Amino acid sequence: MARKKRLKIALIGYGAISQTLFDLFREKKPDIDIVGVLVRPGRAKETQTKVGRKVAVVETLKALLKLKPDVVVEAASQQAVRDWGETILERGIDFMVIATGAYGDPKLYKKHIKAAEKSGARLRLPSGAIAGLDGLLAMRLGKLERVKYVSIKPPHAWSGTPAETEFDLPSIKEPTVIFRGKPADAGRLYPKNANLAVTVALCGAGLQHTDIELVADPTLPAGTNASRLEVVSDSGELKMERLGLAMPDNPKTGVLTALTMADDLMKIVRASDW
């Protein structure tokens, strides 16, 4: 009997998400090998100490691709998607993107789709810290009448964003809408907080027909963030609410984000056609 092939993945970035993936795969022991991590110049030595000698730590995309991964997982930033996504897909390597706010630029999204179609690679967009996207994907086969996504985080999670200049975040005492608009603007103005706004749009009614609200809520349980997805269509209505733990060292990102990425990678292993 032939030995089962193991999935080789490479990570862009070594922040909270990548660290969670390392821990999960170490515990669950799926048929997945993390073969390399791409980090910013000057961070290789520090990162190498953390990941161990069996994982290559590199500072260029060229070096990362030499490791011949089956999937490159972006866990860094929208800029990483813009800088390297097309090259990865052109090489026929699957590209998993969590900083989907970069696709608030329709031209970039179309360029990456075209590169994937030409090479046979897959552009993989995990659901991130939101539930209900399977229902949204099904409902868009009919007629979507309204799609609204609300991201709810404690006031301090919005520090370092435009909300910091428009609101006195520490003084907020009740749930306060700090942004109301369209996904592309949410992803551009809040690149570390609102990537899922674009994910919802791509899975549903599109960038121009999806409504977004970002909320600073001091009443959330400590260490959590939340989201709400509301869909009205000719097939019915969907309302999904989520309350989840934030990353211990990064309140802008939910733990579920990393878990959905891990689950998607494990589904690839379980599939028969990868």
TrEMBL record:
- Which pathway is this protein assigned to? Cofactor biosynthesis; NAD(+) biosynthesis; iminoaspartate from L-aspartate (dehydrogenase route): step 1/1
Instruction: Enumerate the spans annotated as Aspartate/homoserine dehydrogenase NAD-binding domain.
Output: 13-126
Q: Which reaction does it catalyse?
A: L-aspartate + NAD(+) + H2O = oxaloacetate + NH4(+) + NADH + H(+); L-aspartate + NADP(+) + H2O = oxaloacetate + NH4(+) + NADPH + H(+)
Q: Which GO terms describe its molecular function?
A: aspartate dehydrogenase [NAD(P)+] activity; NAD binding; NADP binding; oxidoreductase activity, acting on the CH-NH2 group of donors, NAD or NADP as acceptor
Please report the stretch or stretches of sequence annotated as the Aspartate dehydrogenase domain: 172-260
Give the enzyme's main class according to its UniProt record, as a single word.
oxidoreductase
Q: Say which domain of life the source belongs to.
A: Bacteria
Supply the alphabetized keyword list.
NAD, NADP, Oxidoreductase, Pyridine nucleotide biosynthesis
Please share what else the UniProt entry notes about this protein. Answer: The iminoaspartate product is unstable in aqueous solution and can decompose to oxaloacetate and ammonia.
Q: Which family does it belong to?
A: Belongs to the L-aspartate dehydrogenase family.
Q: What is the purpose of this protein?
A: Specifically catalyzes the NAD or NADP-dependent dehydrogenation of L-aspartate to iminoaspartate.
> Sorted alphabetically, which NCBIfam families does this protein's record hold?
PRK13303.1-3
- The identity of this protein, by name, is L-aspartate dehydrogenase
Q: Which gene encodes it?
A: nadX_1
